[in-house]
Amino acid sequence: MTSMSTLDWALIAAFMALSLLIGAVLTRRAGSSTDEFFLSGRNMPWWLAGSSMVATAFAADTPLYITSLIRTKGIYENWQWWCFLMNGLLSVFFFARLWRRSGVVTDVELTEMRYSGPEAAVLRGFKAIYFTVFINTIIKAQVVLAMAKIMAVFFGVGKWEAIVVSSSVTIAYTLMSGYWGVILTDFFQLILAMLGAVILAVVAVSQAGGLAGLPNRITDMYPGSSYTNFFPPVDGGLFGPAALTFISYMGVIWWARYSSDGNGVVVQRMASCKDERHAVIGTLFFNVLNYAIRSWPWILTGLASLILYPVVAGEDPDMVYPTMVVEMLPSGLKGLMVVSFFAAFMSTISVHLNLSSAYFVNDFYRRFIKKDATDRHYINASRAAALVFSVITGFVAYEATSIIGIFKFLLAFGSGTGMVYIIRWYWWRINAWSEISAMAASTIVSCTLYLHPAFKGMPYYEMLFAIISISTVVWVAVTFMTKPTEEAKLIEFYRKAAPGGPGWRHVERKITDPHMRGKSIAGDVVHFVLGATMIYGLTIGIGKLLLGHTAEGIFYTTAAVVSTVLLFTGLTRRGWHKVYE
Asked: I need a labelling partner for 13 at 20 to 30 A (CA). Which of 198, 212, 425, 485 fits?
């Protein structure tokens, strides 16, 4: 247990009190309707929605996770999550306007807008439970586990005590204030969390000898290592494990995952925006901050840790980051770092609590159990559901041990369904059975590969390819063996969302409105490529410049600047107000 001064405790107490105050102030507004409780009345500005997306992606486990990546492999292992920029840009240029236009409360609600028949209703109910009980529980457990490890270092408390204490305030203000409380606390929690990350990075790098020569000091200390590589080593050839894992991240996993067209958190924020334009700009703002800006304080801290805390066999790399806080920061700053950890933790947990209860109430309870109750009844049901899901999460977090292990399992568990979620927007032939079969195949194959002793030791990239390949074969076969969605439902959906693309020509011929025909997505493809070049160029360019690789840094940042100019010139020429109509 570390010694905490009166100032440290005062900072922590003030933060907790402010969070509860926000919850109390917004209780009345949140309880006025389910639209307010889950979507803030669909009146969210782009900057607040985008900030909330970043805050949610920045959890208490994030700095521990990234430090672990650096200490086990190196900078290049961050492609494990950097690859999801591609997924994020799909949301920006293809799906943000469609989600906002569809008028959904959750992404699961789209199921019965897009498909027909009893199978569509069954799929909606199943997905509500699937995302609530499985996916969101795994995500929350990963974050709670990280906070438990942090509190063990700071306060010396046991795992159960840490889980209960860390979660209590978050649960309280989330239940009181609903989505408005989540969004507003996300904003100031993001500022606190980033401030803490930057402070520790500055102190750690300074104690490690400064930025100048940091890569050389690491190379001298760990000869033959790849800790400072931005891309995986190819000493094993293009078919070596590191290269193949990188290929699986960049070539497959970002589009094969269950969140390929926008995960529930991002969809909820897009759906809550004032209009389609705010949804698009907010999602773009999120991706720039999430990848190009927030990566580097943690990566620099992780690199400094290699010098300050030499890697030893059998260590728990998750514990190094909080240990650095305890041993390197003075009174006051130590309390601020604890607050930043709580801020990151609470922003993520509150979002997923609200989203889980939205799935359960909007897509299961109200749809199948009690259809005509009052808004107050559904809000109370949401609060009760959130409490139950919190208890389930606590038990899962208690049994978990590795943050990276949970993250990689989640990647595998959700693989194999992503392509269905993308194509359902752009090809009329996808039906409810396509999704059902993809989810079933992905779940069965991933659990078999992870749990059956015959596959113990199977390389991760092989596991991903197997899950995705088998699931894809299954859902494509099922699609052609089952009846398509009813034509009336397809026409209704297309009139509402108007996604465009050649996959809808069959349906467009049935629509008399000429403005609904021949809509092209070619411009979206160009914007996607420019956006990826812009943000990846900025991400790598900043890192190269920080680590003293000036020529390479200038090259990548120049590519980012040129892409930015081309992207915004193209958007402006078409007219921002027209691009996403």
From this structure: 198
Cα–Cα distance, 530 to 296 (Å, whole number): 22
For residues 513 and 517, give the distance between their C-alpha atoms in angstroms, rounded to a whole number.
Answer: 7
| Residue 482 forms part of a structural domain | no
Q: What is the pTM of this model?
A: 0.83
Give the 3-state secondary structure of 274-301. Answer: CCHHHHHHHHHHHHHHHHHHCHHHHHHH
Give the single-character DSSP code of 75: G
CA gap 110, 101 in Å, rounded: 11
Tokens linked to 515: 């403005």
- Determine the structural domain holding residue 45 and report its residue range: 1-231+283-400
* 60/189 Cα distance (integer angstroms): 11
Give the span between the Cα atoms of 340 and 194, in whole angstroms. 7
- pLDDT computed for residue 574 by the predictor: 66
Residue 578 has pLDDT above 50, yes or no: no
Cα dihedral 196, 299, 465, 422 sign: positive
Residue 125: CATH number of its domain? 1.20.1730.10
Q: Are 226 and 79 in contact (CB under 8 A)?
A: no
Going by C-beta distance under 8 Å and a sequence separation of 6 or more, which residues neighbour residue 378? 34, 361, 365, 366
Does some domain include residue 358?
yes
Of 235, 212, 572, 245, the closest CA to residue 412 belongs to: 245
Q: How many Cβ atoms sit within 10 Å of the Cβ of residue 231?
A: 14
Which residue in 548, 488, 556, 553 sits closest to 216, CA to CA? 548
Reading the block at residue 222, the tokens are: 């760990």
CA-CA-CA-CA dihedral for 84, 163, 188, 211, to nearest 10: -60
The domain total for the chain is 1
* pLDDT score at 579: 40
Nearest C-alpha neighbor of 94 from the set 470, 421, 564: 421
Whole-angstrom Cα distance, residue 499 to residue 580? 10
Max mean pLDDT range (70-74, 250-254, 264-268, 410-414):
70-74
Establish if 467 belongs to a structural domain: no
The owner of tokens 């992503």 is 418
The runs of H, that is alpha helices, within 73-155 are 79-82, 84-90, 96-102, 110-114, 118-129, 136-155
Contact 294, 50 (CB under 8 A): no
291 contacts 82 by C-beta, under 8 angstroms: yes
Cα(63)–Cα(69) distance, integer angstroms: 10
512, two tokens: 């008399």
Other Cβ atoms closer than 10 A to 22: 19
Q: Tell me how far apart the alpha carbons of residues 386 and 363 are, in angstroms, rounded to a whole number.
A: 15
Say whether pLDDT at 476 is over 50.
yes
3-state DSSP helix/strand/coil percent for the chain, to nearest 5?
80, 0, 20
Domain annotation covers residue 266: no
CA distance 78 to 156: 30
Listed residue (439, 463, 435) closest to 451, CA to CA = 463
58 Cβ contact partners less than 8 Å away, ≥ 6 residues apart: 190, 193, 194, 290, 294, 344, 347, 348
